[in-house]
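Q: I'm teaching a short session on how sequence maps to structure, and I want students to see two examples side by side rather than one. Could you give me a first protein with its sequence written out and its structure tokens following it? Keep the formatting plain so it prints cleanly on a handout.
A: Of course. Example one:
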Amino acid sequence: MANLFYMKYASKLLLILSSVPTLLLAQQSQTDSTQLQEVHIQGNRLQIPVSQSSRNIQIISQKEIQSLPSTSINEVLRYAAGVDIRQRGPFGTQADVGIDGGSFDQTILLVNGIKFSDPQTGHHMLNIPVPLEAIERIEILRGPASRIFGINGLTGAINIVTKKADSHSIFAHTYAGSSFENREEEGKKGIYWGKGFQLGVTISTEKQQHQLYLTKENSNGQRYNTASDNEKIFYQNQFQFNDRNALQMMAGYINNEFGANGYYAAPGDKESEEHVETVHYSLASTHQLGNKWFISPRFSHRYNEDDYRYYRNDLSKGRSKHYTHTLSGELNASYKSAYGDLGLGLETRQEKISSSNIGKHERVNFGAYTEFRTSQIKNFLINLGAYVNYNSDYDWQVFPGIDVSYLIGNYWQIAASTGSSQRIPTFTDLYLNQRPANIGNPELVSENAWQHDLTLKFNKDRIAAKAGYFYRDIDNFIDWTRESTAVPYQAMNLGKNQVHGVLVNFSFLQPLGFDQSLRFQVDYNYLDPSIINKTENKILKYGIKSLKHQLVGTLSYEVKEWSFTTANRYLERISGTPYFVSDFRVGYNRNNFRVYGDVQNIFDEEYLEIEAVPLLGRWVTLGVQYNLKFR
């Protein structure tokens, strides 16, 4: 039976790859394919080119984003190596994100280096108002990120970097899709569908740039009670006072309403729905002081309102309302010397919640951090530093770390890193009172981890490859447990969570003759996790459900105005049935006009990423974009 199972998926993969066998026969032409390696990682203090980084970092460029069969950030991230996107709702409505086996509360998500984390729960982390059109690139840092970004970067960080407007323009994008399956709702006829519309305006002069994007999406779902209605607004600007001083502002708003059948408390929540509103704004400035000092102060505020209705038709019971405020201030600085680059910084963060079943709580966090980077030792790149943190609930902690890489010739690099990180329990972990289902635990202590990585990298012309191993050891791992089904789940510190991981990556970009190019990338990740201590005779709510095998392959072919991309994922969780999902996009670009067609889940695979939430079967989408630039 096992052989038949794997033969089934192998035959599908061969079918995908056999559709483009003649592409490899064309001749080479001149195309610049090295730009990505010169991208500077947007760390808060030191800006490091990707080619000189000792960490395991993946960059998803705007060109790659446009070629993938995706219309939301959630969908783009599912093709990223080591990233586990577990969707509940379709069309980017609700999803959790983890890195290398970490939970949705152990990853930091940032936009332009500013944190979008929510102290209530990591379920809201992907409430991001930024449309794909406004993104320049997505940076994914795997491994401990607390030394760079502070608390809660236990297993990694995802930083979304937005574009800088370079012209006056008007942008419009509309798309619609369907599974062509009949609706399940009683008395409601027709098929399942979804549609969206985006409108954007950019203004660019020598001294200032402005961008405004409006998004409206709605759908009748993909199964019973999964309809959604979403609005997003995103605005950003930049003022250049002179060559050394600039000011940036960013603001966003999200209003999501969606049916939540099976999302959190299956099978009893068949009639539940959720309303989420998020407001975020930030103000930052950058200043070059002489030739050596650079400083950047910034401030941000995030407000989230979560209204969960267990019975959507009876609001007198089973309703939870949560209101959170997060205020953050930072001062980042760097100093260049003959010996290397020194980074310094201070951070403060205040988190508040007022909730119908969590109560009113507040905590304050202060951080100070430093790092030093040097390449003065021949063939070595060294980056070391530490983050010192004080939290009003969890006292003092320190997160040190060091990254070292050795250059072997012109193309090879061996990199090693070790570092510590922390995750502070959310307000849900600590104080939730949702009897008889779930109760928090105010006695929880923070999760603390050490991770060690060793990676071998190769980069020559248009070929890049790497292979690596990591080991992570988390103390005081948090999960929700209970002794029997007669009592509610409660958050508990369970002892150790240990993970061994292996990664392999290969990418290839080949310019071809006659205005053609071919891009191929394959990523394989293997995880071997375990929980040690305090799990006997306990029922775990989450347990270990991370990916064991993750194989992602994308193949893109461009010829003149046409582009074709096939993106394929084979995923096997520690617990659960393996599945293979194949997606395809064809696009046509002509001047300011772009049209594309997507087929997601070509083979109509049945699979789950969250228990009791079957995801989209075959889904067909057609989209049209128009971007009119005035200069």
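Q: Perfect. Now a second example for contrast.
A: Example two:
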Amino acid sequence: MQLDPNITFDTLEGALRVQYARVNAQQWHQVCAQVAASDGRLVALWGADRTQSGSGYSVHAALATPEDFICISLALSGAAYPDIAELFPAANRMQRAIRDLLGLVASGATDQRKWLRHTAWRESEFPLRKADVVQAAQRQGDANNVFESTDAYPFVQVSGDGVHEIPVGPVHAGTIEPGHFRFSVVGERVLRLEQRLGYKHKGIEKRFEQMDMIQGARLAARVSGDSAVAFGWAYAMAVESAAGVMPPPRALWLRALLLERERIANHLGDLGFLGNDAGLAFGLSQFLILKEDVLRLNDALFGHRYLMDVIVPGGVARYFPDAGVTRVREEAECIEQTVLRLKHIYDEHAGLQDRFMECGCVTPALAARLGLIGQAGRASGQAWDARVTHPCAPYRELVVNVAGHTAGDVAARVAVRFAEIVESIRLLRLIVDRMPLGDISAPVPVPAAGRLGIGWIEGWRGDVFVALETGNDGRIARLHPRDPSWHNWPVLEHAILGNIVPDFPLINKSFNLSYAGQDL
């Protein structure tokens, strides 16, 4: 994309090359419109409070085209900024979250409903404002700052003969995090689904502001526990970019090894549960055996089943033992053979395919319009994969084969998972064969205050993004982690339309989105 010559873009060097600019309100909308017109997409949207330093509030957008990664910042004179949800529908919930957390409003947005505000905060409280921490004691005796008395969320009402609502959640029968789903149905056919998330706001973004760069790595790995490697790498990349450090080559290859192992483990679990949701309990047992084997080898080689705290700023925290090469190769052979046999069973099982095919369809055109990303996006004809479009080391050398499909149904999302497992096994073999020798970490100097670092990694669910602003004494002034579920949850509302209510668990699992990643 040809960047606007009237806007001064600086290049932020690092593992990811970022074009960064401070813009005015007109340029904010102009750049976003230009990216949208260039087949680009919104990666993340977040706000920041610098009132204690005298510079007020600001909003930031990360944008990607097939060629460029762009970050723009808009300093606000008040509390309003231009709406971009008409360009990028995924911006809707991000803008509503910014309003709940900072009190900044997307001017002209058609949907101004609260998103994260349930009944936990006072009516005038905005958790990411600096003043809300400073003045906490003052609020205790302020009668005007009472807690919101009711949640009264304004769900869209659907009316007509035979239309009725089915509320599901936020408390579920399974051991999962809370989320409310409001179905409007006729008979069993779904006319509309509306989600309500954010029931367990953890305060992660505010917690980062109380940490230094090293402490922040542990929290980043726990933003969404099934993506510890992806968030850990994105966080480390952001710190390294701000500090001007590049990890040793061996550390980068080890990170890729960890990332592909995380992808394999999660896809194995999903394939098992998808079989189970369609009535094939055999598939669940077989795939969970394979996943358990992967997790046990993770623990044996790296000290943690889910690989938490292995990636640190500057590199990785644990050596890869010599015996690990043989064990990874043996495991890869076993998984590949078993997965291919199970794929044949899934493909030839008439009952399974009857449930999978033409269920929960998202057409390529709808996926492109709504910004569907990750493995779900690739099942609907979207070719976005940061390992290919914006590869960092060592993916430039590995050359990833992107799995894709165009049917956009549950069957397509299952097929993409099978293909990605096989491809990740191929990558594991290449990584252990080509991994360079040498150090596994490099010193990370304390970055100067006011530096911006960006991390962007293709996790198993989709691309994971971290934006870091440095403060004084090596501490974090602002950190925004963005899970791909922010983009994909709204698309699930469309995928269920026209399907029957009993198919929702299957469709939902075929996306397998993160509640925790949405509820920071």
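Q: What should students look for in example two?
A: Point them to this: DSSP finds 18 helices and 15 strands in the chain. Also worth mentioning: Residues 337 and 422 are 10 Å apart (CA to CA).
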